[in-house]
Amino acid sequence: MPIDIPEVVIDRLPVYARALKLLERDSREVVSSYELGEQLGVTPAQIRKDLSYFGRFGKQGRGYNVHRLLSELRQILGLEQQWTLALVGVGNLGRAILTYGGFAPEGFSIVEAFDANPEIVGQCVGELVVRDVKELPDILHRSPVDIGIVAVPAAAAQGVIDTLVSCGTKAILNYAPIAARVHRDIRMRYIDPVLALQSMTFYLKSAKVSAR
Amino acid sequence: MPIDIPEVVIDRLPVYARALKLLERDSREVVSSYELGEQLGVTPAQIRKDLSYFGRFGKQGRGYNVHRLLSELRQILGLEQQWTLALVGVGNLGRAILTYGGFAPEGFSIVEAFDANPEIVGQCVGELVVRDVKELPDILHRSPVDIGIVAVPAAAAQGVIDTLVSCGTKAILNYAPIAARVHRDIRMRYIDPVLALQSMTFYLKSAKVSAR
After folding, report:
1. Which of A201, A206, A208 should one mutate to test binding to chain B, selecting the residue with the greatest count of B CBs within 10 A?
2. Which end of chain B is more exposed for a tag (fewer CB within 10 A), N or C?
3. pLDDT tens per residue, range A22-67
4. Can you give the pTM of this predicted structure?
5. Which residue of B has its CA nearest to A12?
6. Are residues A128 and A185 in contact, defined by beta-carbon separation less than 8 angstroms?
7. Which domains does chain A have, with CATH numbers?
8. In angstroms, rounded to a whole number, what is the distance separating the alpha carbons of residues B121 and B123?
9. B118 in contact with A at a CB cutoff of 8 Å?
10. Cα(B5)–Cα(B47) distance, rounded to whole angstroms?
11. Contact, B79 vs B107, CB < 8 A?
């Protein structure tokens, strides 16, 4: 069943879950698709359509029960589970990732960090000792992780991704600005600030033109 | 006209442009929507539909002219222009952003960096001297930037975003994990690794279930 749900819908669900979490924290019991849409910059129709893939959540004209919808979404997305991650690349970006406080509270635990630079290997960053990337296959074959985070330079990224996949990693969070190739069974998400910037300049440019 | 194009379509165009750029670098002259789709994990039909918003680019059965499609996309997205950016927040993440080599070659130039921490203010990071965030309004009123990058802790983010917007910034790249509120004329993109992870666990979870 889940296979038929468009990926863009799945991508929006965590955003809904986050908004609902904030509403729950504010002790809100009910929210309308209109209000949720206003907050997130999505149309109410889009929200209703996205949620309809997973059953009926709201009552016509009554809105959604915040707690129930949130816990359903968390179930659907697997957010109740604990997930293990391995980071490859401990430069400035890798350090920011290792010391970022936002992963653990959401059930994402970085359990290994690797780098190729001998000056970085052995350093203690956050709560981990950085290991030599040469040891990665051994370590991950012994203790597989759910998700790999790739924060190495572009030139090294495809090799690192291939190695992670060969160790059984089924999902990759890729910070390297490359169009990496993976088997279609492997999930990959890009964290790419340039792509995000480039999707905004379309509107900035339009604004400049229409302001003339 | 551009107003009617769905935002998800605009979001995909930079991805197409990047793939085309790589093909051009490899001296490829023509590419089919099928091949492009294979590379990007998008259906050929999706690519054809997305591009159809902007006119007719390919000939039936002949594929797209790589160079022509790339330059059209760059025009549409405003990628030929130079854009100025101001960064707020120079922690580990801000440092990674300032020293990241991927912005300038794409026309994105970070011209100011601000922080609230007196120990960081005055430091030289990358090619910039970090300024006190208190000076931000003065500096940006005098020399406005196109885009603000927010890399401050969650608690400080909404305030920073409001200040940037009040200084005329029309687009925000937001690394802080908050559902920020901005006027709908302001473009905002989130860089949020947790949301990306959460959109993958849906599939990992499904795989676990079906593997039982």
Report:
1. A201
2. C
3. 899 999 999 999 998 887 777 888 899 899 988 877 666 788 999 9
4. 0.82
5. B199
6. no
7. 2-76 (1.10.10.10), 83-194 (3.40.50.720)
8. 6
9. no
10. 14
11. yes
